[in-house]
């Protein structure tokens, strides 16, 4: 008894050393949603959202659901405007999906330094299934930077960010992860810095396995099972890197930033949202529609 009390006291001291998850961790005040991909075999990671037409736009994350990580003023829409969609697939594929579109007056991918990929226009994001603060659970983070890398010394399109050691780069490699970046107009990515009077768009598309605990190989790691209702601590920051640095826009609250916690995403199953295409395109959907009418 005495021994177990001593162990408990030790645990309490350890817990007190870390900040607690804030009551509101989300920039939008309510949290974010990931929609189940109805047909994973129809998805292509190519930087085009032509294969996302099933996505219920109610859950698209728009500018009013982001904030500045530094509590700076938000950009004018002509300077930077973000829309993001989050999806997931059930087993057997069991993958996280992400599509981010950024309208931007200047598409900037000029950095050649592979060790500082987030200097330019890019997205960085990560999973923290264990939901610990940075100093506690950082070894289990899966963190990524995705950018157009045409001018990096190593043209590696998906660069594990500063929390992911070389040891863990397998989490950012096929078949564990896939990423693509595209632009409109397409030729914008041929220039280190591209601009026009009306700006352009950058598209980031991604899918990856999510890991509860991450070792030095898949065999030494525990894969997270994505299923409807699951809550996943997730962070998405979108960078406007015009010049030295311009905007760092996030989905987490100021309290979450201060405590080093991520925002929260809840997974919805195909029956939990309204798909603009899946219902109409299926025979069963047409039958249900006929009952409604
Ligand atoms: Ca696609
Ligand atoms: Ca801009
Ligand atoms: Ca930019």
Fill in the CATH topology. Answer: Immunoglobulin-like
Tell me what the CATH architecture is.
Sandwich
Approximately how much beta-strand content do the residues carry? 25-35%
Poorly predicted sequence stretches spanning 5 or more consecutive residues: 1-16, 160-164
Instruction: Give the rounded overall mean pLDDT.
Output: 84
Approximate shape: globular
Quantity of strands, as a count: 14
Total number of distinct structural domains: 1
Number of distinct helices: 5
Q: Tell me the helix content.
A: 10-25%
The CA-CA distance between the termini, in Å, is 67 Å
Structural class: alpha+beta
Tell me about this structure.
This protein is 13% helix and 31% strand. With 293 residues, the protein is of the alpha+beta class. Strands 1, 2, 3, 4, 5, 6, 7, 8, 9, 12, 13 and 14 form a twelve-stranded mixed β-sheet that branches. A two-stranded antiparallel ribbon has the order 10-11. It is globular. The chain starts with a helix and ends with a helix. Residues 104, 106-108, 121, 240-242 line the site of one calcium ion.
How are the SSEs ordered, and which strands pair?
Blueprint: H1 2-16, E1 32-36, E2 67-68, E3 80-88, E4 96-108, E5 122-127, H2 134-137, E6 142-146, E7 158-160, E8 177-184, E9 193-208, E10 211-213, E11 222-223, E12 231-240, E13 247-250, H3 254-259, E14 263-268, H4 278-281, H5 283-292
The chain binds calcium ion (3 copies).
Main traits of this protein?
binds calcium ion; two-stranded antiparallel sheet; Immunoglobulin-like; globular; 293 residues; alpha+beta; twelve-stranded mixed beta sheet; 5 helices; 13% helix; disordered N terminus
